[in-house]
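Problem: given the chain below (310 residues), write out its structure.
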Amino acid sequence: MKTGTIPRSGKVVADQERAGTTEALSRVRSRSAPVLAVVNRKGGAGKSSSAMNIAGVWGGWGLQVCLVDLDTAFNLTEACGYPVELRTDGGDWLSTGHVEPWPVPTMPHCALVPSGSRLAAGVERMERLAIDRERYLGKLLSPLRTTYDVLVLDTKPDLDLSVTGALAAATHVLAPALTLPQPLYGVVRSLGLVADLQEGLPDLRVVGFLPMAYNGKGLRPASLGSLVEMAAEYGVDCLPPIPFTDHAGKESQSHTPAALAYRNSPAGHAYRCVAALLGASLGLAVPVEWLGRGRQAQAEMVREIMGGEG
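Solution.
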């Protein structure tokens, strides 16, 4: 399953990476797919961008990925290029119960359950349910877990039933955070919510923190250190940071994840490392080479931040 040396050609890279996962896909699809909820209770933390880029990398490796946009701002839906004329009805699946993923043209093997103007009405419907309100979303998405290899839920930076429902539907949680002091509070608040829900969902697992927009200047190294220490305190991983790039957050213009559009950039490499580490935690088939690179990058980050203690 090992992929070998990475050549310059993006197409050849993608072909080799897909080949590195094919032999294990039948095993992955024989079970119910994992569900990754991307959560931070502060806006602008990089949830939509990280969800889209990680999904794009997984899809490039041949995994069947379903993104679910649960944010009424529908940033992920816009970034994936969901047609403008359909957004007025976007999110009506939460009310009707009819979930029909839309294939994302710029992301191989990826589909989107879109948000839009009608998602809020679906959340209101959930709130009116007499019983099992938090489990309603999980029941709607359950059939997709036999069709796709992994589901990725992009949540809103708030606390409403769509967020608690996403966590109830999830098997794993990822908390992205900008490497600046203020956004770290969103991670703390998110972990508090997860801890509350774990009393009724003991199998829900936080797979790690994902530092976003890291550039090694100003307050960012100190904030990265705080995130690494916080991860150690909570007993979870801090994933290698995604470096700052001018292309980050501009997926809504290009409709292509930076990890795919700029495959050989530092951000493209970092997203592959992160996708491999996350995929391994979720039990997905990932290229051995990128898993090794990810572990090396993670160890180097901890050694640098902790002054050689990691």
